[in-house]
Structure to design on (185 residues):
């Protein structure tokens, strides 16, 4: 039996709630809301796929991640520059790679995301993959909205999704390009 590897984790209180940040082989594999409903499933997926266990310890890449998260939430950073390790199925990986192409301050619908990966009929599967994203903010699943411009589904809750989109809109180069999406309030 092979020895388990380690995902170094830290909990970090932010202005949008407490997050868990994890690194595997100096790559961020986890940046997620600590108290989300899918926490056990996400953790099991990561630990099983990497044959790893979580160990709480400060390591340099986690310190850098915290600094970049803080700068992003202040509005002084629009892109993250840390290496990531995405853990999921080939389909999920394709969705998450497409998410990384959505520009700061922009939104797309689940249908548009499905089209980006070349499968117009996969809207529900794309939404499920979006929800399984374990690297929030760096893989910006909060930029995906309903086709009717309504805020739908987010691991951190809709109030956090709204805050993130407003933050990006207020610091975007083209703030008028974002639709005003708060119809479901």
């Amino acid at each position: 039996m092979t020895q388990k590897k380690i995902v170094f984790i830290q909990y970090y209180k932010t202005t949008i709630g407490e997050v868990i940040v994890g690194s595997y082989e100096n790559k961020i594999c986890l940046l997620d809301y600590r108290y989300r409903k899918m926490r056990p499933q996400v953790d099991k997926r990561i630990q099983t796929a990497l044959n790893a266990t979580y160990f709480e310890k400060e390591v340099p890449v986690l310190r850098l991640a915290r600094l970049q998260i803080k700068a992003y939430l202040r509005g002084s950073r629009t892109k993250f520059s840390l290496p990531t390790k995405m853990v999921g199925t080939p389909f999920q990986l394709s969705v998450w790679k497409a998410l990384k192409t959505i520009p700061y301050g922009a939104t797309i619908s689940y249908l548009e995301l499905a089209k980006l990966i070349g499968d117009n009929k996969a809207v529900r599967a794309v939404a499920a993959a979006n929800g399984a994203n374990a690297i929030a903010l760096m893989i910006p699943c909060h930029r995906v909205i309903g086709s009717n411009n309504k805020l739908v589904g987010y691991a951190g809750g809709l109030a956090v999704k709204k805050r993130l989109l407003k933050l990006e809109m207020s610091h975007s180069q083209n703030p008028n390009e974002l639709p005003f999406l708060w119809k479901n309030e």
Summary: The beta strands are 5-14, 17-24, 27-33, 52-56, 108-109, 144-145. Residues 176-185 have pLDDT under 50 and may be disordered. The radius of gyration is 16 Å.
